[in-house]
Fold these 2 entries.
Entry 1:
Amino acid sequence: MQGAVRDFNHDWKFAKGEQPDVARDLQFDDSTWESVRIPHDWAISGPFDESASGSTGKLPWTGVGWYRKKFTVEAGSDRRVYLDFDGVMAFPKVYINGELAGQWDYGYMSFRVDATPHIRFGEENVVAVEVDTRRHGSRWYPGAGIYRKVRMTIANPLHIAHWGTFVTTPSVSDWRATVRVRSTVDNHSSSDRELDVAVTIRDPEGNVVATGEKRGIAPAEGTVEVDQQMFVDAPARWDLEHPNLYTAETIVRSSGEVVDGETVTFGIRTFSFDPDRGFFLNGERVQLKGVNLHHDLGALGAAFNQRAMERQLQIMQEMGVNAVRTSHNAPAPEVLELCDRMGIFVWDECFDKWNATADNLAGPENVLPMAVRQLDNFVRRDRNHPCVFIWSVGNEIGTSVDERGDGMSFGRLEGMRTCIRQLDDTRPVGIGCHTPNTVRYPVYDPLDLTGWNYGRRYARYREAYPNNPILYSESASTVSTRGHYAFPLANNKTDYPGGTGHVSSYDLSATSWSDIPDCEFQLMEDDRFVGGEFVWTGFDYLGEPTPNRRDARSSYFGIVDLAGIPKDRYHLYRSHWRPNAKTIHILPHWNWPDRIGKKTPVFVYTNGDSAELFLNGRSLGRRTKGVVPPKPTNLAAAKPTMTSDGASAEAAVDGDDDTAWRHTDSGGTPWVQVDLQEVQPVEQIDLALGDSVGDAGYAIRVSRDGTDWSTIANIEPRTAGSRGWGRRAGGPRATYDLTDQNVQARFVRVEFTDLSDKSTADVKELKIYSARYEPEYYDVTYKYRLRWNDVIYEPGELKVVAYKDGAKIGESVMRTAGPPTSLRLTPDRTELLPTGEDLSFILVEAVDAEGNVAPLANDILTFQVSGGGELAAVSNGDQLSLDSFQDNRHPLFNGKAMLIVRSKQGEVSPIQVTVRAEGMEPATLSITVSQ
Ligand code: GAL
């Protein structure tokens, strides 16, 4: 009889917290435990803990949890019984009928437990799994529990080993491909066994295109590998547009009887990296347009769900993505199946660091043994997938040349590469790096390629290793909150205007180490030797809420928010990555009751090269990509100055930062002022102070006539504990953007207060502009976006008409919405399968009487889901929201929220969904459930 693989995900019982030893036993009464279905993440239901660390999502993932399941295995004592876990967070101990049958020491890794010696054949058995996340280290939300699938494999004593079929295509041409199938067969019997391995290759249509058969002898209690090659004529290549998949079916016979069989999927393709020209697939250069994806699925948590993952990938692919990096861990196996099918490359990454984030608690000596043990499972599991094109052994790991710490050394990287290449010599082995200086050490010598994170840090490596390929493994790390806009625009990538804990979605904000998307587009155009970029990140994820680590629970890095709703920059990427697909996207929304008469910049993301913007039918001009608007001139340059001490202050307005006006007497309120010689609009003041200013405070005052002064900025002195106005190399600098303040002035004065004995009033440069002076850093945005910076807000209709090569490609409209009157439901799918895991993602929007989304609506929604489905989760993408993902009430955020509905297993009846909000028409929806 052939072996059998059983779904083992149903009818589990779960209890949180430590349990007595008897919880491992069959007799234990678990009737009070919760009934759960695997995959299960015990922490995603919360509650959020406001005081807990934002870095790991403020959710209760730390602790112990127990799972139990009863099962029977038919009588027949020569069976082998295995439990195959795709991932358990973390440190699982698997007990069968009270006895420890196996355990694993890395929460992201798939593993097999041999249950055979503990099984009572023909009787009831119990498996109990103890899970303990307390020692698991994480820089993000890891989830908790048996969060990936489990299978039970029942096999003959002679069977195909776990992940025992390995298919490669050693030679590929248009007329023929060689397919090599290596089959590892385990023999658990006490005598040698002759066997016969028959392989059938089928093409993507299911036609048999090659067969092979070979004999072998598996020694008693041993293993044999049967290695055979076949030809496939005129192979249909796997590529991004045509992800053609072949199958190899393996049947093992012994003494004329079929003892085991399995079918694996593979692809026929060639790829290569060229250190000077980038990445090639089937002989053609492919620009990798990649994203990093963490393993959580937003409101569904870490519990893997195939449809939720497929949806993420579909959204990414629609944007133009052709590659993902599984940052920073082994993904669920289904991720690779999906990418095989969808034509998406995978940078398959095994670890973040090699410390507690890899569950290595045993220190430096354990780094290599731990890595080798995990890589063995990792590579065996994933090596048949055509989507996998890189094995990555880590991310941003420091060096530890002498191996006294847990960092990179020559020996460790050599050891890891050797382990991988013995299991698969068809893919390069690399790592994600971040410290250019590390190339001083020969640690990278063993690796085939490296990825570099941010800021063109790969430059040093390229000098040191001109013959090794490079990828941009993390780019951008732009931060934003969907639907949130702050004024005036950011003047610096790290100044996060608005101060509400949300980050403006004008896509001008990043972190100190990272950049806005446009910089990376430019870099990838210039550096063709780089295979492509992997943006940090495709989706927001739970945890790591830089730049608001204390208060928020989820990241700001995503191109798409945590609820799965695209942010503005989704359209920026799409416009650039899919130049032939129509994208015409306007931002911001157009509901600014308190901005009437104020400058409210409008950006358009389009694949067109120019566009004309209309406000209430009036043209606001046409903009063309690549045209950087001229910078305003400095009104203060060489203008007359006055000072409190009567000394000359020319040095403060001479355009030279190396000279300064300096008032050396301590105390008092020394000031310097410039006379613009006529009353002018003042929209921006840039101030560069000298170091000797110390921690003084200062005020900026303006006047039309030199007698009547108003204060436009008052900066407190810097005191211990306060951030004050900050220091920078070369002295403090500050920019005051007054666009919203309508300042008209002839005189501008800087007046110091609280000068300590050691401080001097010291102004290197005072610059005054009548229009916003945007830093040169943002010039590149004009190449990829169309920007109207000076639109004076009035409610109504914004319309943009976009052109490409002179021809109109389309138009787009953004209207001021009236008060929300009803809710609109837009499901991604209206037909589900009764599998108990099929999902419909229903976008909920508050709309006005005309159907415009009300972008400021934050009303509380309540949900009712009945019939053949249930509420799986709800979220709204607000990084600061601590509302439960599993409640039947949840607020809208900036007009939107996402409701996730799941079919019930075996129930073939429609799902009725009703969503309500006070004062609005409720919305209803019916979803069909059928086989
Ligand atoms: C990188 C790191 C990522 C993430 C990212 C945020 O340095 O590799 O895991 O933390 O920064 O920008």
Entry 2:
Amino acid sequence: MRIDIVTIFPEFFSVLDVSLLGRARQAGRIQLGVHDLRDYTYDRHRTVDDTPYGGGAGMVMRPEPWGDALDSILYADEARGTVDPIVIFPSPAGELFSQAMAQELSTEAAIVFGCGRYEGIDQRVVDYVSTRARVRLVSMGDYVLNGGEIATMAMIEAIGRLIPGVVGNPASLVEESHSDGLLEYPSYTKPAQWRGLDVPPVLLSGNHGAIAAWRREMQLERTRRVRPDLLPPA
Ligand code: JBK
């Protein structure tokens, strides 16, 4: 998968050099391009924002550098033979990100992330790019961030680990929270007793049927208690 990022903080993405994703890049499973939006400005101060038409607090990102940066990335994709890239703008006004969306996006050949700052990007950037590529506005959740960078990082981690060969043990992909629509059961390891706290005896019983039933019950109990919204109406 080819991933391109447009941002005014390219240094943020140096963490993608390490860990699982870093190894996936070295193995050639993920190709990453990080682009500084300010490289597409032509004034002395490398200005990327301005006051909003119609008034209001905060600044809006001007369309020209965004248009040039995205044109350049989409052109390079075409020249490389990368087919049909999807462009994602992290935004509190977008559709909510989910494991299902991560699953869907992990099958894309190329994703471009546009990280806005300030009060957002001039709407014409989204409107224009929509005429050239598939575009999605995606939200990580209903809280306020300073920009799209951290949301992009979270999406890249969620998507990247679903790419075949990126996570060493594919079984660990199926057993986690959200992959079956329920929260995870609690996990224990050695020692069997610690600070007066015992591992639930069923886990030491060797009875695989009883263990599976107990884990299922724990998943349901946790989900009912903290995330009833995840349960089917019944
Ligand atoms: C938020 O993706 N988001 O959720 C997001 C992106 C940019 C700014 C934000 O406040 N929530």
